[in-house]
Automatic annotation (TrEMBL):
<dbReference type="Pfam" id="PF00001">
    <property type="entry name" value="7tm_1"/>
</dbReference>
<feature type="transmembrane region" description="Helical">
    <location>
        <begin position="30"/>
        <end position="54"/>
    </location>
</feature>
<feature type="transmembrane region" description="Helical">
    <location>
        <begin position="66"/>
        <end position="90"/>
    </location>
</feature>
<dbReference type="InterPro" id="IPR017452">
    <property type="entry name" value="GPCR_Rhodpsn_7TM"/>
</dbReference>
<dbReference type="InterPro" id="IPR000276">
    <property type="entry name" value="GPCR_Rhodpsn"/>
</dbReference>
<keyword id="KW-1133">Transmembrane helix</keyword>
<keyword id="KW-0297">G-protein coupled receptor</keyword>
<feature type="transmembrane region" description="Helical">
    <location>
        <begin position="185"/>
        <end position="211"/>
    </location>
</feature>
<feature type="transmembrane region" description="Helical">
    <location>
        <begin position="102"/>
        <end position="124"/>
    </location>
</feature>
<comment type="similarity">
    <text>Belongs to the G-protein coupled receptor 1 family.</text>
</comment>
<feature type="transmembrane region" description="Helical">
    <location>
        <begin position="145"/>
        <end position="165"/>
    </location>
</feature>
<keyword id="KW-0807">Transducer</keyword>
<keyword id="KW-0472">Membrane</keyword>
<keyword id="KW-1003">Cell membrane</keyword>
<dbReference type="GO" id="GO:0005886">
    <property type="term" value="C:plasma membrane"/>
</dbReference>
<feature type="transmembrane region" description="Helical">
    <location>
        <begin position="248"/>
        <end position="268"/>
    </location>
</feature>
<keyword id="KW-0675">Receptor</keyword>
Amino acid sequence: METQEEAELCFPQLLNISCKKNTRPQSESMLIYVLIFVISLLTVILNLLVIVCISHFRKLHTPTNLLLLSLAVSDFLVGLFVMPFQILLIEPCWLLGDLVCVLFYFFAFVITGASVVNMVQISVDRYVAICDPLHYSTKITQKRVRICVLLCWIYYVFYSFIILTENLKRPGRYNSCYGECVINVIGAVDIVMSFILPVSTIVILYLRVFVVAVSQARAMRSHITAVKLQSSVTVTVKKSELKAARTLGVVVAVFLMCYCPYYCVSFSGSDIMVSSSTNIFLVFLAYSNSCLNPVIYAFFYPWFRKSVKLIVTFKILQPQSCDTNISEKM
C-alpha cells in the first residue's frame, strides 16, 4: 500500500531523488487553466486571421505587411505552442523528461524573441516612412524586408542555442530533484538582448517620430493661410503621420506594460518559483502581448476589417478573390 510520503512524490519509485508535489487549491488551478485557454485561443485565432489576410490578398503584399505577417507567425506560435506547454511548467511535476524541458525553452526563446525583434523592425519601417518618406520606396523594398525577416529568425535561433548551450549539452543538470524543469541562463545578457535593447530602439524611434510629427503639425498651423490646395495636401500628410505616431505610442505602452513587470522582477534578482502564482501571472502578462499585437497592428487598419469580413463570409473561396481590391489606407 502506498505510504503518505510516496503519495507526495512526483515519482514514488524514485524515493530518494524525486521532487515533491506542490499542490494548490483546485479553484486557483481552474482559474489559471481557463485564463491560459482563453488567452491562447484568442492569440491563435487573431494571428491566424492576420496570416490569412496578408497571405491571400495580393494587394496586401507590401513591405510593411510582410513584417506584420512575420510578427503574426511568431505570435501565432506563441499561442499554439508556448502558452499550452506553459501549463506543464506550472504543474507540480514535470513528466516529459529533461530533454523535452530544454527543447521547450529553446523554441520558446526563438518564438518570443522573434516576436519582439519583428516589432522592432516594424518600428524601423514606420520611422523611415514618416521621417524620410521621399526615400521610403527605395530604402524599404520587399526583397530587403524578406531578408531582414529571415535574418531575424536565424539570429534568434543562434542566440537561443548559445544562451542554452550548457543546458542542451547536459539536460537536467540544474534540477535539484527528478521532476523539475529548470534551466540556467545568464540573466543580465538575456535582459539586455531580449528587453533593454529592443525597448530602447523602439522608444528612440518613437520619440523621433513624435518630434517629427509635432514639428510638422506646428508648420501646418503656421502656414494656415497658404494656398488651399497646398494646405489640403499638407493636412492629409500630417493627419496620417500623427495617426502613425499615436499607433506607435500604443505599441510602446502595451509592450512595456506586458514585459516590464517580468523583466523588472528578473532584474531585481528576486527568487520566484516557476510554479508560483506570481511567476505564472508575470509570464502570461508578457505572453499576452502576442494576443494584443494583432489588435494594435492590424485592427487599426481598415483593410484588416474588410479582409476579415471576406474570410468569415467564405468569399475568399471564390475564384480570383485574391485579387480583391483591399484598401491600404490607414
